[in-house]
Automatic annotation (TrEMBL):
<feature type="binding site">
    <location>
        <position position="100"/>
    </location>
    <ligand>
        <name>pyridoxal 5'-phosphate</name>
    </ligand>
</feature>
<feature type="binding site">
    <location>
        <position position="40"/>
    </location>
    <ligand>
        <name>L-glutamate</name>
    </ligand>
</feature>
<comment type="function">
    <text>Catalyzes the reversible conversion of 3-phosphohydroxypyruvate to phosphoserine and of 3-hydroxy-2-oxo-4-phosphonooxybutanoate to phosphohydroxythreonine.</text>
</comment>
<feature type="modified residue" description="N6-(pyridoxal phosphate)lysine">
    <location>
        <position position="194"/>
    </location>
</feature>
<dbReference type="GO" id="GO:0030170">
    <property type="term" value="F:pyridoxal phosphate binding"/>
</dbReference>
<dbReference type="InterPro" id="IPR015422">
    <property type="entry name" value="PyrdxlP-dep_Trfase_small"/>
</dbReference>
<feature type="binding site">
    <location>
        <begin position="74"/>
        <end position="75"/>
    </location>
    <ligand>
        <name>pyridoxal 5'-phosphate</name>
    </ligand>
</feature>
<dbReference type="InterPro" id="IPR000192">
    <property type="entry name" value="Aminotrans_V_dom"/>
</dbReference>
<dbReference type="InterPro" id="IPR015424">
    <property type="entry name" value="PyrdxlP-dep_Trfase"/>
</dbReference>
<feature type="binding site">
    <location>
        <begin position="235"/>
        <end position="236"/>
    </location>
    <ligand>
        <name>pyridoxal 5'-phosphate</name>
    </ligand>
</feature>
<keyword id="KW-0808">Transferase</keyword>
<dbReference type="GO" id="GO:0004648">
    <property type="term" value="F:O-phospho-L-serine:2-oxoglutarate aminotransferase activity"/>
</dbReference>
<comment type="pathway">
    <text>Amino-acid biosynthesis; L-serine biosynthesis; L-serine from 3-phospho-D-glycerate: step 2/3.</text>
</comment>
<feature type="binding site">
    <location>
        <position position="150"/>
    </location>
    <ligand>
        <name>pyridoxal 5'-phosphate</name>
    </ligand>
</feature>
<dbReference type="InterPro" id="IPR020578">
    <property type="entry name" value="Aminotrans_V_PyrdxlP_BS"/>
</dbReference>
<feature type="binding site">
    <location>
        <position position="193"/>
    </location>
    <ligand>
        <name>pyridoxal 5'-phosphate</name>
    </ligand>
</feature>
<feature type="domain" description="Aminotransferase class V">
    <location>
        <begin position="3"/>
        <end position="340"/>
    </location>
</feature>
């Protein structure tokens, strides 16, 4: 297997891929693939409902929250959220921690007058704002945060208390990488393709009474209520993606659940951050230490030329996806749930050897 550090879509557990391979042509003796089956069949419905059940159990999602499987990626949520909730001149607050927050804010401007209440842009998005920089307007329809900033490699560890104002989080790049107190949020959304499965499924977790406040004068398919009322089977869902998501959730369960996954994610990230921190400036992390992400580790190599050499030697050695995002350059190792500890160990060994050779 490749040492896959892709930022998304990213590595999937080998065990899950092998199981899917076994079941691909003849799913549970049905004589057909899960992809060839009606989404209204009892067999698919069981797969679908089990995925929802596992998500609720593993992520400790209370019963007063809906779990929806949508399409259109996290990017469609940037649009659906303001379309559903910015009605009657309501405002919303956006906390700006990177390019994905900017994209979410830009969509909200099409529907109302969102406000940026805190931004770390001036610091090249190296850090997460402190709570005293966040001043929530109590009239807001919601506050929006990006829990993990895939491009800059920063992550919230604690979330601000927004009082009566609903808190919405884009958790695309750290959902289910650790236990989270769901009750702090009115809505959580994430594209599945980093921690939960293949691309094509978007998970939305939302408090039922928050969804009840949504605008009803919008197209049917863009209303959360449409999907909530039909158990996410309003139209043909991404059946294969939902099946894979269910299998990834089983794998998380077998690994010991989110506490065990979180512990392993910490160990994995530490292997790489330790090399950066002990390199006497040969490697420098992009993110401020207190805001570092355990999912996306962003760093630079001593100079431009060496950095190119690092990326090309890494590629030759079998490491995939280490180039930083095209908007910021540098290097980025994405160590999501499915990236094995050995893969991170291999990268940390490679970084040490590269430094010894070139410093
Ligand atoms: N939000 C974050 C934090 C992301 O990292 C990404 C994709 O990388 C997106 C949103 C966009 O997700 P999608 O491609 O599913 O629309």
């Amino acid at each position: 297997r490749a040492y896959n550090f892709n930022a998304g879509p990213s590595a999937l557990p080998l065990e899950v891929l092998e199981k899917a391979q076994q079941e691909l042509v003849n799913f549970q003796e049905s004589g057909m693939s899960i992809m060839e089956m009606s989404h209204r069949s009892a067999t698919f419905e069981k797969v679908h409902n089990e995925a929802i059940f596992r998500l609720r159990k593993l992520f400790a999602i209370p019963n007063d929250y809906e779990i929806l499987f949508l399409q259109g990626g996290a990017s469609l949520q940037f649009t659906m959220i303001p379309m559903n909730f910015l009605k009657n001149g309501k405002t919303a607050s956006y906390i700006m921690t990177g390019v994905w927050s900017e994209k979410a804010y830009k969509e909200a401007k099409l529907f109302g007058e969102p406000v940026q209440i805190a931004s770390t842009k001036e610091n090249q998005y190296r850090n997460i704002p402190t709570f005293d920089e966040i001043d929530v307007d109590t009239d807001d329809a919601y506050v929006h945060v990006t829990s993990n900033n895939t491009i800059y490699g920063t992550q919230w560890t604690e979330f601000p208390n927004t009082g009566e104002v609903p808190l919405i989080a884009d958790m695309s790049s750290d959902i289910m990488s650790k236990p989270v107190d769901i009750s702090k949020f009115d809505m959580i959304y994430a594209g599945a393709q980093k921690n939960l499965g293949p691309s094509g499924v978007t998970v939305v977790i939302a408090r039922k009474d928050f969804l009840a406040k949504a605008n009803s004068e919008i197209p049917t398919i863009l209303k959360y209520s449409t999907h909530a009322e039909s158990n996410s089977l309003y139209n043909t869902p991404p059946t294969f993606g939902i099946y894979m998501l269910g299998e990834v959730l089983k794998w998380i369960e077998e690994k010991g659940g989110l506490t065990a996954i979180a512990q392993q994610n910490e160990e994995k990230a530490k292997l790489i951050y330790d090399v950066i921190d002990n390199s006497n400036g040969f490697y420098t992390g992009h993110a401020s230490k207190e805001s570092r992400s355990l999912m996306n580790i962003t760093f630079r190599v001593a100079d431009e030329e060496l950095e190119q050499q690092f990326l090309s030697e890494a590629k030759e050695a079998g490491f995939i996806g280490l180039n930083g995002h095209r908007s910021v350059g540098g290097c980025r190792a994405s160590a999501y749930n499915s990236v094995p500890l050995e893969t991170c160990k291999a990268l940390s060994d490679f970084m040490i050897a590269f430094k010894t050779k070139h410093q």
